[in-house]
């Protein structure tokens, strides 16, 4: 049973790190969008390639007409915080109960 517990604990920690890194990528993309970046810059293109598949569906659900501001990064960051607080903690608690 300890092997499963260790696997779940390691998975939870990797998921936590991955979600944190992705949250920072979302934040950086939002900050970069404020300065009208060069769309041909490789870093800007990488940011858009990494974030657009997640942000686009949120934009479809939440139309931003009339607001003048894109709230999709905030919604995605809140979802990441929820996953960190619920999913990661649940995996860690399951792992601890299996020890």
Would you write up a description of this structure?
By secondary structure, the protein is mostly helical. It has one domain (2-98). It has helices at 2-33, 42-61, 72-98. α1 (2-33) runs antiparallel to α3 and α2 (42-61) crosses α3. The longest helix is centred in the N-terminal third of the chain and has 32 residues, at 2-33.
Structural class: mainly alpha
Helix and strand pattern:
HHH
Radius of gyration: 17 Å
How many strands, which pairing sense, and closed or not: the largest β-sheet? none
Please state the oligomeric state of the protein chains shown.
single chain
Q: In total, how many beta strands?
A: 0
Tally the helices: 3
Topology:
Elements: H1 2-33, H2 42-61, H3 72-98
Helix pairs in contact: 1-2, 1-3, 2-3
Question: Notable features of this structure?
Answer:
about 80% helix, mainly alpha, about 100 residues, elongated
Short description:
The chain has three helices and no strands. With 99 residues, it is mainly alpha-helical.
């Amino acid at each position: 049973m300890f092997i499963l517990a260790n696997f779940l604990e390691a998975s939870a920690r990797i998921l936590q790190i991955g979600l944190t890194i992705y949250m920072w990528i979302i934040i950086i993309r939002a900050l970069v969008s404020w300065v009208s970046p060069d769309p041909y810059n490789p870093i800007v293109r990488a940011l858009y390639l990494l974030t657009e598949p997640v942000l686009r569906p949120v934009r479809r659900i939440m139309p931003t007409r009339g607001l003048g501001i894109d709230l999709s990064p905030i919604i995605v960051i809140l979802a990441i915080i929820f996953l960190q607080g619920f999913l990661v903690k649940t995996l860690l608690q399951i792992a601890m109960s299996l020890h």
